[in-house]
Every structure is written in C-alpha cells, then in structure tokens.
Amino acid sequence: MLPEFKVAQLRHFVWVAELRGFHLAAEKAHRTQPAISLSIRDLENKLSEPLFEKHNSRAAKTELTPFGQHFLPKAKEFIAHHDRIAEDMALLAEHKTGHLRLASVPSIACHFLPELLLNFIGDRELHVSVFDDNSDAVLRMVENQQVDVGIASLFDEQGQSEKHFTPVWEDRLGVVCPKDHPLASHKELHWQELQQYRLISNGTSRLLRGSEVESLLTHSQYYISNMMSLVAMLEAGFGVTTLPWYAFPKNNAQLTFIPLHTPVITRRIGIIRLNNKSLAPPAQAFVDFIIATQKETNN
C-alpha cells in the first residue's frame, strides 16, 4: 500500500534538512521540538526508511541518510506542486483568475458589457471569452454548457423550466425607418399607422406576438435575422422594422427610432443559467456584480 503524505510532515522534513537541526525547524514551524521529532518519525514509518542519521551527540548537525538525500528533492517537488494548486484555487475562489465564458445578445454586448467587464476585471488575471449572437443561439450555448452564463431574452419562460432567468435590463419597442421616411416626423406611433408600410420582421419581432400588432407579422414580406443585413435593407428603403431601443444602431446617421405608444411593448433582458448547476467562482462573481451594478443604477 502506498504511503499517504501529509504536506505538513513534508515541510517539517525539508526544514529539518535545510536548517540541519530539529530545534531551528521547530522555531520555523512554530511548534515544539518534540512535535517536529514526532512528525518526522511518523513520516519515516510511512516510508519504512530513516531520513536522518542517528548521532549520539546532541551537538552534531543533523544529516540526511542516503535515502533522505534522494527523498528531499521529491518532497520539495510535492510541496511546490501542492502550493501551486492551493494558490490557483485560492485565486479562483477570490475571482482573481480563471476563465469567464459569456454569451450575449448584441444590444447588451455593445452597450453594457464593455464597461461592466472593465470594472469587474480590474487587476484580475481572468481569461474572458464573449460570444455575440441572438437570444436563441445564446440559449443553445447555455444548454450545451459552452458558456457559463448567457445574457438574452427568455421569450418562453414556461417552456424553459430547466433554465433560471434573472431580469436585469428592460427596453421599449419602437419603429425604425430611414430619416426621410414619412413616419420619421412622428414622436410616437400607433400600430395602425404602420399598416400602409412594408414591415421587415427580425429576431425580436416575436415580441409582437400576442399583441394587437401581431396582425402586421402575417403581412411581413421580409424576415432578416442578421442586424447588419437588416440595417442595409432599411437604408435601401425596403421598408420599416420594429426593434427594442437597445438594439437600435444609435450611431447610424440614416435611421431613426420612433417609440410605439399603442401598444407599449417592452423587452426584458437578463442573465440565463442552468438550474441546479453551480457556477464557477468567476462566473458567479460576475453575475453578482451585474445585479449589484444595476441596482445602484436604478436607485
């Protein structure tokens, strides 16, 4: 049966060997000399070999046996490996190292994530991977455990019972059209004012389902899931679309956003994680940080 080493015993052995005395090793360990002697004796029993030469004179320096000389670098290597693991785990528990994997819808990835990550990471040695995609893709990445957490809308909360959704952000739905479009002069819009115009549906159009605006979706000639393509179609004059405020490309000089006032439709975006599965310390810390930051913002 292989011996099971205690790190403390190995440290005592190394200190006695390097300081060449039990008394000095006891001082370094903040233990009594008999306690160090007992620790070394127990280690020798486990190894079935003596580690130090026996001397009749107490004044003689402690010397290693040939077996002890062979064991010393092994003990040091064991201690160093243990300390590296202990340090890594301590840093991980303190959220100062590790790998944080996130998936987010583009609107949050562009508007909020850069500042959140910058403030959260600070001087931490964290590796961060961010995947930018629509809500359905974010949900799949969470399901497949490709990411620790997702940031997206959970459109069907009852059908996603294996996931936990914590709402964080909320934005209002509006109409997006070119600045020279007839609707562009309106400050707010009633949904019936959209009926005479071609509606381009997109991934967020499911927000219209169950509302009085839903009838517009049946007449939608185009569906475009990619935001860059959607913007290009809008700029080319193919029609108008509905988007939540955070998803609107605010630096675009050719498009404008007009809020819908009838009906008022809002989108909830939040943190999505699997139920009954603990997060790695950096991921849990980042979730807590997002929630705390948003609370401060709202107060």
UniProtKB/TrEMBL annotation:
<dbReference type="InterPro" id="IPR005119">
    <property type="entry name" value="LysR_subst-bd"/>
</dbReference>
<dbReference type="Pfam" id="PF03466">
    <property type="entry name" value="LysR_substrate"/>
</dbReference>
<keyword id="KW-0804">Transcription</keyword>
<dbReference type="InterPro" id="IPR050950">
    <property type="entry name" value="HTH-type_LysR_regulators"/>
</dbReference>
<dbReference type="Pfam" id="PF00126">
    <property type="entry name" value="HTH_1"/>
</dbReference>
<comment type="similarity">
    <text>Belongs to the LysR transcriptional regulatory family.</text>
</comment>
<keyword id="KW-0238">DNA-binding</keyword>
<keyword id="KW-0805">Transcription regulation</keyword>
<dbReference type="InterPro" id="IPR036388">
    <property type="entry name" value="WH-like_DNA-bd_sf"/>
</dbReference>
<feature type="domain" description="HTH lysR-type">
    <location>
        <begin position="5"/>
        <end position="62"/>
    </location>
</feature>
<dbReference type="InterPro" id="IPR036390">
    <property type="entry name" value="WH_DNA-bd_sf"/>
</dbReference>
<protein>
    <submittedName>
        <fullName>LysR family transcriptional regulator</fullName>
    </submittedName>
</protein>
<dbReference type="InterPro" id="IPR000847">
    <property type="entry name" value="LysR_HTH_N"/>
</dbReference>
